[in-house]
Amino acid sequence: MISYIRGPLVETDEDTIVVEAGSVGYNIRVPSSLLERLPGIGEEVRIYTYLQIREDAMNLFGFLSRQDLKMFKQLLGVNGIGPKGALGLLSAMGPEDLRLAIVSGDTKAISRAPGIGTKTAQRVILDLKDKISVEELMPEPFAGKDAPKSTGRSGLGDAGREAVDALVALGYSQMEAAKAVRQVEIGEDMTGDQVLKASLRHLAF
After folding, report:
1. DSSP bridge pairs for 21
2. What does the mean pLDDT of the chain come to?
3. To 10 degrees, what angle do helices 118-128 and 95-104 make?
4. What is the pLDDT of residues 7-20, one digit of tens each?
5. Can you say whether residue 115 is alpha, beta or left, with left for phi > 0 and alpha for psi between -120 and 50 degrees?
6. Which pTM does this prediction carry?
7. For residues 67 and 18, what is the distance between their CA atoms, to the nearest angstrom?
């Protein structure tokens, strides 16, 4: 119903923000991990939204990228997890760390989120592990709207993708490769070989 809301950021709270659009202030529930990535009050922001309609209320949930909104929707598809639980997971871990925990089968990390027990964490991993691609494990600069243009797959930077492919060829899993590349601050002029070498240094520890 509402794909996204764009306008000046008016207020922020522990788990909600207010964005003004068309002279209307929209109260949007967000994961706390998103708050530190927001622009300053008064600056423009684009929030991708999910609208929950209940008999007694309408709640708007928001995220800074379509990828994070997709993660939220995937969590809602897991039996036993509603919007509150999904938001709690994304608040406790952040979308990127949650994806890594799912792919690596880290039940303990997921179960640390409020209201998420071991069985629910196992269900999250079982249901979503095969639905998360290596592209979604890449660092935010390659996933966001300001990503450098690339001729590589899925719009990722060539250097990052080449480094992941090279690490996989060396015997690392895609999860290990993506996690290592995530730790590298990739400059626009870096080559795939440079990113690979930097990633290997992280894997050495």
Report:
1. 24
2. 83
3. 90
4. 999 999 988 999 99
5. left
6. 0.70
7. 21
